[in-house]
Amino acid sequence: MKKLNDSTSDRGFLRGLQNYGDREFSIYMRRAFAKSMGYTGNELARPVVGIAYTHSRFNPCHRHFPELLEAVKRGVAAAGGLALEFPTTSLHESTLAPNSMKFRNLMAMDSEEMIRAQPMDAVVLMGGCDKTVPAQLMGAASAGKPAIQLIGGPQMTSRYQDERVGACTDCRKFWTQFRAGKLGQVEIDAVEGRLVTTAGTCAVMGTASTMAAIAEALGMTLPGTAAIPAVHADRLRAAEATGARAVALARSDLTPDKIITPGAIDNAARVLLALGGSTNGVIHLAAIAGRLGLKFSLSRLNELSDTTPVLAAVKPVGDEFYMEDFFAAGGVGAVLRELMPLLDLDAMTIAGETLGQRLAAEAGCYVDRRVIGTAAKPVEPRGGIVALFGSLAPDGALLKRSAATPALFEKTARSVVFSSLEDMAARIDDPELDVVADDILVLQNAGPRSPAAMPEAGFLPIPKKLLALGVKDMVRISDARMSGTAYGTIVLHVAPEAAVGGPLGLVRTGDRISLSVREHRLDLLVDREELERRRQAVSLPASTRLRGYDKLFRDAVLQAPDGCDFDFLRG
Ligand code: FES
Q1: pLDDT tens, position by position, 365-375
Q2: In the chain, N or C terminus with fewer CB closer than 10 Å?
Q3: What's CA 209's distance to the chain center, in Å?
Q4: Which residues does ligand 1 sit against, CB inside 6 Å?
């Protein structure tokens, strides 16, 4: 039997020994416990691939991960490595309170420290649901070991009566119909059982699918794997290939800082824009970049947005196609090939080839042009997301113009203000609420440092009495986030947020607000003296009575343009 070689303890199972003050004792102890798991010396002498495993019964989007894990381990073993999975925090959108974003940094810290502390040469990051992929990429970027992302993949669609449905753009559509009285209780109960019928992440270009595409565009996944549906056999083959590639990475020094470069970040941002992807992707990309000391600014976003066409018509962009259609149409590779003249083709990928080499090898691959347009005939001529600046958002705000109503893009109107989520819940459907279709709805105190911790509440409901009149969209402004599956003329991530004294907290019902998407402006039309008077009267929430992670989060979380990472985690 081959003996575990203790002379190579910078690699493999003997790397990173505990310090008892006696190195030989440390080796002896580690071997003793490894033997308790039944491993032979032969196995333990192989390159070790850790698998960050995020299966959890609280995470329905990852319910297929056990089968996926087996495929990864098969790939690792066939390539001569030792696969060791380990649990990390797992985050699902609908099973975490107050919201999953609050725990993205916790998962990133957990992932980083476990990758660094445990004796692995490379790591496979198994993620899917919205915050899991950015958390893993942030953690892996900081941990500094070779890493490869394996995406869980999107759900397949289902049927409600004669309609094709999938989470969760359709969730919102049906709920709006229910609120407007067009669907009854029996119907909405039936819809509830039809929206999510397979394993995997939301079936549209929401945050999960956007982050999967970003991971591929960054070069952190195997080519062509971001959009494979969760239950498709190709997903298992991708898992096996990812495991095999991780063994090669374990023998290399291809660490994330060599992949996630400024050029790769621009490439990922272009793909985000070309997909009309989730606004959350902007926050996550800034956070990933920040881990490596890089900056992805909102002004850079605008430069890229003005020169990047929207190419994919996947819900919530358009009203027809889902992620399974996007995969069949050619997936992220088809979008990248169409964007080629705009990309940094020298960017290295974890596959060991540059992006340019990858795309050259894919020349001539099939593309379904109903789903993925060409640069000459795009879905929209400019990017799906635009940053706005002005007296209401000195550090910026976002609008997803590809999912908004163009007729509302240039607008000056009266504001109707809700001071918190609780205030909004209490009054939004009050028949006495003084609101008309032409007003701008404003929600305060839903940013990262608010008690709500930046929920996906930016999709403010249209007041019931306006819904009954057939109003489908209004300008809505907040410091909250919005689900990538949501749509509407919604201004988000206003920074600085109300809870740290940003001007958003000084808006009062009746103030006039001016929005100009053309000029990239968002202004509060109230004179300075009046704002100063209001500022003196505002008291900001303190974190002194908090404890534990709540306190850490409130004290250390950065504003949206800096990715909402913790200040002490940036590179
Ligand atoms: Fe997991 Fe939508 S809830 S991706």
Answers
A1: 999 999 999 99
A2: N
A3: 8
A4: 61, 92-94, 129-130, 167, 201-202, 206, 208
